[in-house]
Amino acid sequence: MEKIQITTEYIKLDSALKYSGVAENGAHAKEMILEGLVTVNGEKELRRGRKLYKGDIFKIDDEEFEIG
Prior knowledge:
By secondary structure, the protein is an alpha+beta fold. About 25% of the residues lie in helices and about 35% in strands. A five-stranded mixed β-sheet has the order 1-7-6-3-4, with helices on one face. A two-stranded antiparallel ribbon has the order 2-5. The longest helix is centred in the middle third of the chain and has 9 residues, at about 25-35.
């Protein structure tokens, strides 16, 4: 599991996908989310603006990332 370090209170899901390198850009992140490919804390997430806080875990395919 890879850690994504943030210096703010939260990061939006689409931004986290871009920051982690999983998504090439915002449009790609939006597409992956709307296709139901992303889970947050074990549940499918369809909102690209979902706020992720420290300790949250998002997963796409076999890659897991924890917000730290």
